[in-house]
């Protein structure tokens, strides 16, 4: 059997999507823990902490907190996510508004993006990504079931205004990189929905114009755009991060200098544990490490699109497609500006960059996608057969993962029969209007006319005799009813 045939045979298995997603997400999470261990000393020095393992301990704490969240999302049925869409959207809007309050939001480097909850600092914009994704997918699914997505206004209203509102709140922090993530979610939803290309192109043009205006509005953003083309001209200025990141990537070679042996993370590459963690991977793990990370993200994208295609639930298709575009698009932007292919935006690398709220949100999305993979029609049938025969895997029984149920398409409500139109009452016959009294006219005496004699039938051999001619008698004298007429005048007129 050829290798391609083996791959096709493996992909035909009912739980192939679950296994591939576990491999991709678990591999990326493992790389993130390794990078946290590698950059912990440098991060502790930057933060002025005496303990050198502060970064690693914090990353492990977030992983420990995120695993129950991952398990909760894993065992949740697909339709249950729809029930939390609107409450999550409400909480996201309130938290995005609260972070702008000086007494609530925590300001770092001139931006208010975090809320202090005692031992943890939470970034509401990361949670808002998930809330907006679930809300928008539920909205579009309802409209699709009602059959109202045939018109553009039903697709864009109120989807676009709500996205503009959320992006506006995030830009007040300000945070252009997170705003780009919301744009990725919107584009992923519209692409999964199958929006016609003319509308899709219009949305892209509008988004590009808005991002350009936002970038030009602030001087530091405009400087980043100008130094993106020639970063080495501003090596000691605006292009410092880009140049040092490229130096770190180039110094790793093919095999790298070894995990933990890199030197660029010590006050050379800024934010080496968050925004520029990929440059540290290139230096310590080399080209092979960078290729492995890219391959894991490619596997994540392939599996997410596979779940989107194989699912029968329209809500699952939209959420899976939007989440895949969001996670992989965010990784593409991060790697793009580290390698000087895109302007610097400052967004973390999913699963790998240090960041508590980002990691928790990513783990929830990771568990949600595995739950969607378990609810594929083939996987549901296989799980139900295994449960009926008592052959479920030990991991599923140990994790108490419920048996998935097949998706049942909701029945469309029958269209109400049109009510019979009330028959119009027959209009009452119009009563004839009373005629005004007429003046009496003098009555004329009728002329006497004698009838013609009937024609006698002719006997055989004789002609029929014609009837006698009608003889008109003289008219009788008129009897006048008026007293003022004289007989003399009447006779004169007759003469």
User: Termini separation (Å)?
Assistant: 138 Å
Structural class: mainly alpha
Largest sheet, in brief, is: 3 strands, antiparallel
- Give the assembly state of these chains: single chain
- Helix content class: 55-70%
H and E string: HHHHHHEEEHHHHHHHHHHHHH
Poorly predicted runs: 480-495
How are the strands ordered across the major sheet? 1-2-3
Care to describe what's here?
Mean pLDDT is 82; it is low at 480-495. This protein starts with a helix and ends with a helix. A hairpin with a 2-residue loop joins strand 1 and strand 2. It has a domain at 83-349. A three-stranded antiparallel beta sheet has the order 1-2-3, with no helix packed on it. The chain is globular. The longest helix has 34 residues, at 277-310. It contains 19 helices and three strands. By secondary structure, it is mainly alpha-helical. 58% of the residues lie in helices and 2% in strands.
Walk me through the topology.
Elements (H helix, E strand, L loop, with lengths): L2 H9 L4 H23 L1 H8 L6 H21 L5 H4 L1 H14 L6 E4 L2 E6 L4 E2 L1 H23 L5 H5 L2 H13 L4 H18 L3 H21 L1 H11 L10 H13 L24 H34 L3 H25 L17 H19 L2 H13 L4 H5 L88 H8 L1
Antiparallel strand pairs: 1-2, 2-3
Helix pairs in contact: 2-4, 2-14, 2-16, 4-16, 6-7, 7-9, 7-10, 7-15, 7-16, 9-10, 10-11, 10-15, 11-12, 13-14, 14-15, 15-16
Give descriptors for this structure.
3 strands; mainly alpha; 19 helices; 495 residues; three-stranded antiparallel beta sheet; disordered C terminus
